[in-house]
């Protein structure tokens, strides 16, 4: 089995992929769209991409691609504890505070902004496609002094030295990853919840449309765990809504609610009904 993930090696997505598919051939992708395209063109059987972080919220590029361009079901969700570490080339350990740039994925930079403001306020923040990509770049050059924010595995993979540990703003920092595949997948990790993700696009100029959508779930006592809006990319002020629901024993009620929503003129898209797997802290 071939599984695409947001690379390069030693990224958080790589760590989640190894835990979910320990016997698969893991294939790194430079960007999230590239990862999903590998699944679309049949290069891989599954793809793993980040969708949300505790501190920085939704990974918009993932959500937008799944809504606007892809038609691939979510087969599972992985929840990974996230610890961000500051690392430098071994030759620069004594002068890491002189770093001209701090490299990392935009979400990781944002998760650690408080620490960076206190300790490296003059360093330029440079966004990279992934945390592991940042670590690899820092390992490739000694001058000028660069630092990377990345997982511990990246330091080991690219020969870096960690100079500050756990610099993220929240101790309980987690990232959710989606497992995408045209076929069901088997994951040998603890699972306690079942979710369904749908999008709802409201009719133009229909008063109370969002209230009617939420009411369809409310009076049936269906448990919503997330709702957010994203631009439709048509006209300013037009949005679609992503809604995540806990399934439990309410699958039939959810089907009825979606049917009621469609009868009001709303358009819906089901991204998938899937299990949530928690990756133990190692």
From TrEMBL:
The keyword Lyase applies. GO terms for molecular function: prephenate dehydratase activity. Pfam families: PDT. This is Prephenate dehydratase. The lineage of its organism: Bacteria, Bacillati, Bacillota, Bacilli, Lactobacillales. It comes from Carnobacterium maltaromaticum (Carnobacterium piscicola). InterPro entries: ACT-like_dom_sf (IPR045865), ACT_dom (IPR002912), Chor_mutase/pphenate_deHydtase (IPR008242), Preph_deHydtase (IPR001086). Keywords: Amino-acid biosynthesis, Aromatic amino acid biosynthesis, Lyase, Phenylalanine biosynthesis. Its EC number is 4.2.1.51. The keyword Metal-binding does not apply. It catalyses: prephenate + H(+) = 3-phenylpyruvate + CO2 + H2O. It comes from the Bacteria. Pathway: Amino-acid biosynthesis; L-phenylalanine biosynthesis; phenylpyruvate from prephenate: step 1/1. The record marks 175 as: Essential for prephenate dehydratase activity.
């Amino acid at each position: 089995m071939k599984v695409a993930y947001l690379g390069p090696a030693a990224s958080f997505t790589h760590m989640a992929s190894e835990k979910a598919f320990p016997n698969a051939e893991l294939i790194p992708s430079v960007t999230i769209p590239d990862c999903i395209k590998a699944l679309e063109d049949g290069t891989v059987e599954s793809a793993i991409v980040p969708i949300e972080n505790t501190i920085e919220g939704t990974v918009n590029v993932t959500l937008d691609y799944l809504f606007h361009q892809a038609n691939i079901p979510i087969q599972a969700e992985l929840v990974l504890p996230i610890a961000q570490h500051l690392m430098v080339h071994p030759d620069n350990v004594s002068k890491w505070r002189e770093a001209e740039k701090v490299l990392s994925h935009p979400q990781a930079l944002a998760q650690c902004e408080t620490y960076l403001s206190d300790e490296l306020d003059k360093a330029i923040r440079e966004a990279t496609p992934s945390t592991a990509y940042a670590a690899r770049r820092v390992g490739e050059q000694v001058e000028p002094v660069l630092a990377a924010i990345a997982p511990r595995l990246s330091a080991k993979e690219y020969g870096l030295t960690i100079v500050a540990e756990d610099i993220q703003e929240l101790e309980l920092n987690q990232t959710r990853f989606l497992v995408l595949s045209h076929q069901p997948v088997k994951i040998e990790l603890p699972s306690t919840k079942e979710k369904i993700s749908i999008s709802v696009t409201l009719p133009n100029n229909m008063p109370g449309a969002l209230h009617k959508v939420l009411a369809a779930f409310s009076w049936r006592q269906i448990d919503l765990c997330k709702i957010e809006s994203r631009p439709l990319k048509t006209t300013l002020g037009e949005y679609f809504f992503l809604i995540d629901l806990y399934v439990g024993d309410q699958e039939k009620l959810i089907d009825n609610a979606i049917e009621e929503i469609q009868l009001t003129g709303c358009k819906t898209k089901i991204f998938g009904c899937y299990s949530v797997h928690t990756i133990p802290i190692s």
